């Protein structure tokens, strides 16, 4: 059998019903049906068409509608691994992902701290995207955890998702190994994750136990409600299989005094913001078109619990904030209109995050 076993299974099992084609933006762009795409990948067409597997957001929506339980994203990931292992030139700017991953997985960004109690049962894992969005929000979240869970320590690093999405299995496993080794060193058995992408990678691709920050906060949040207006909830696509996370984010907003509205493609049907799967590095125009489409679909000031989603849709005249902005930021008007960060701004914020948390 071909090395592309998942891909071959799609060739053998796809019934060509068309449901995934209706639910997905990527598939109609690149093929007549997923069976046809899988056949091309099995026969090695990925060598001449390396951009194709890197145009998928790998959001998992196809799997939610497939009557025979096929996941095109799993096939795409398998092909990306093969592209990387065969050292085939990567499309677009994918090669630059390695440089960004190098910093957030380095000792320059890394920080681990024990729980205030000295008995570290779990560790707060803010991740690199939230750190790149707002150092102050990460710091406020860490201070809240200190007051409300004395057995929670801190682990600041990257989950390895960019390496995984690139197809670099060896580097991903190295980064994951460091996370697990640090947890073992401190005696932690669980991570409190702020990012749905981190949560998905730990839960689906490793044996690292997680609970979302929003679930933890929702259990103990007691701050008085304030007037914070009406917001349209955008669920990150990687939260689709985490209903507890989705529910907790909404309940926190209601406790804070917000009116939360639901758009199309929400909850279990969550739609990608356009930047998932490193698509922006492959074809920035295509990724931007997807972000614009989602921004228009939301139709109001958005709130989300994914920093990358907020940043992706801001350039398309869609004001928005992170859930943590509403809980901790005193100037919501400024936050919702703030420009999206570029790479240099994100790195500056990540360095500031480490500085604040080091105190």
What are the defining features of this structure?
359 residues, alpha/beta, Rossmann fold, 3 domains, five-stranded mixed beta sheet, four-stranded parallel beta sheet, 20 helices, 9 strands, 52% helix, 9% strand, 4Fe4S_Fe_S_CS, metal-binding
Describe the structure in brief.
With 359 residues, this protein is α/β, with parallel strands linked by helices.
Model description:
The protein contains 20 helices and 9 strands. With 359 residues, the protein is an alpha/beta fold. It has 3 domains: 5-85, no CATH class; 98-217 and 348-358; 225-340, Rossmann fold. The strands form 2 sheets. It has a 5-stranded mixed sheet with strand order 1-3-2-4-5, with helices on both faces. Strands 7-6-8-9 form a 4-stranded parallel sheet.
In terms of topology, how is this protein built?
Elements (H helix, E strand, L loop, with lengths): L4 H9 L5 H5 L2 H5 L3 H9 L18 H5 L6 H14 L11 H8 L6 E3 L8 E4 L1 H7 L1 H14 L3 E5 L4 H6 L2 H18 L3 E4 L2 H10 L4 E3 H8 L9 E5 L8 H13 L3 E3 L17 H4 L1 H15 L3 E3 L2 H7 L6 E3 H6 L3 H6 L5 H16 L1
Parallel strand pairs: 2-3, 2-4, 4-5, 6-7, 6-8, 8-9
Antiparallel strand pairs: 1-3
Helix pairs in contact: 1-4, 1-6, 8-20, 9-20, 13-14
InterPro entries: 4Fe4S_Fe-S-bd, 4Fe4S_Fe_S_CS, Cys_rich_dom, HdrC_iron-sulfur_subunit, Helical_ferredxn
Keywords: 4Fe-4S, Iron, Iron-sulfur, Metal-binding, Oxidoreductase
Pfam families: CCG, Fer4_8
